[in-house]
Amino acid sequence: MCGRFSLLGTPQEIEALFDLMDIGTFPPRFNIAPTQPILMVVSGETPPPGSNRTDRRALLVRWGFIPGWVKDTANYPLMINARSETAIEKASFKTAMRHRRALIPASGFYEWRRNGNNKSQAYWVRPRDGGIVAFAGLYEPWANAEGSEMDTGAILTTAASEDLRFIHDRMPVVIERQDYARWLDCKTQEPRHVADLLKPAQADFFEAIPVSDKVNNFANTGPEIQERVAESQEGNKKSSRVKPPETDDQLKLF
After folding, report:
1. Is position 140 annotated as part of the catalytic site?
2. 156: which of 84, 171, 182, 244 fits an S-S bond (Cβ 3.0–4.6 Å)?
3. Higher-confidence residue: 124 or 55?
4. Dihedral through CA 227, CA 232, CA 233, CA 237, nearest 10?
5. How far apart are the first and last CA of the chain?
6. Interval 126-150: pLDDT, tens
7. CA distances in angstroms from 144 to 50, 147, 251, listed in the order given
8. Does 2 qualify as catalytic in the annotation?
9. Lowest-pLDDT range, 80-89, 99-108, 160-169, 230-239?
10. pLDDT tens-digit profile of 62-116?
11. Which of 65, 99, 61 is CA-nearest to residue 81?
12. Which residues 6+ apart lie within 8 Å of 148 measured at CB?
């Protein structure tokens, strides 16, 4: 599960890491919530010989995947995550798995652990060495009945690494830098060719920092939501599934 995440890198850092050009400016985003725009890196057109342009492009998509065949979203579930183990088999995701794989730049994600009495402890889960990581993602163009179009997307998840299972049993798939090209190559790399990338991050790659419930409110968008707090007395008990806090259903701009 991944219900909130953060992107704190500068545009210049993201351009350098993902081999992009001219992605524009944007502020640090501490509390990215479902239905808001998220940045994805996708494979673009092959540049002509002699060009210094990259074959990757940045795409701004709605976090909440809508298959192209969906006509009415009123009763369609909000799909912010896709299980990597079964995505190729699901009608909603199998076409995107073959043709529209993406990278999602992130500085980390938030997860919640149930503490009993219907209370939960929030954690800011970030790379132990800092920096930006790439979550595996899928994107899909969608148009409503009036012809208005937008791109939509989801984060692929996998089983949690051993050191994070006390919080939740799922985590985002992290694609390592040396595998970016292979993951994005939907022309020669079929889903079976990249299945080995859909695995948990190595133990100790991430660190989990207990934070306050300020993160529960998507309106809280400052660095204070990532400040460490005293962990719950029940922090070592076995975890159970807990849904992230509810968000609004409107597309928010940066």
Report:
1. no
2. 84
3. 124
4. -120
5. 23
6. 999 999 999 999 999 999 888 889 9
7. 40, 5, 15
8. yes
9. 230-239
10. 999 999 999 988 889 999 999 999 999 999 999 999 999 999 999 999 999 987 7
11. 65
12. none
- The two tokens of residue 136 are 């595996």
Q: What is the pLDDT of residues 37-64, one digit of tens each?
A: 999 999 987 766 766 678 899 999 999 9
Q: Where are the beta strands (DSSP E) in 54-205?
A: 56-63, 81-83, 101-106, 108-116, 119-127, 133-143, 149-159, 170-172, 174-175
Instruction: State the Cα–Cα distance between residues 84 and 157, nearest whole angstrom.
Output: 6
Highest-pLDDT range among 141-155, 200-214, 225-239: 200-214
> Are 168 and 113 a contacting pair, CB within 8 Å?
yes
* Three-state DSSP state, 45: coil
Could you tell me if 52 and 116 are in contact, meaning their C-beta atoms sit under 8 angstroms apart?
no
CA distance 229 to 209: 8
Query: Which of 94, 122, 96 is closest to 216 using CA atoms?
Result: 122
Q: Are 78 and 246 in contact (CB under 8 A)?
A: no
> Which of 45, 85, 111, 246 is the catalytic position?
111
Beta carbons of 41 and 117 less than 8 angstroms apart: no
Residue 95 to residue 79: CA distance in whole angstroms: 15
Percent of the chain at pLDDT above 90? 78
- In whole angstroms, what separates CA 45 from the centre of its chain? 24
Angle, CA 254 vertex, CA 134 and CA 126 arms, to 5°: 35
Strands (E), 160-204: 170-172, 174-175
Are 104 and 151 spatial neighbours (Cβ–Cβ below 8 Å)?
no
Q: What is the rounded CA–CA span in Å between residue 203 and residue 211?
A: 21
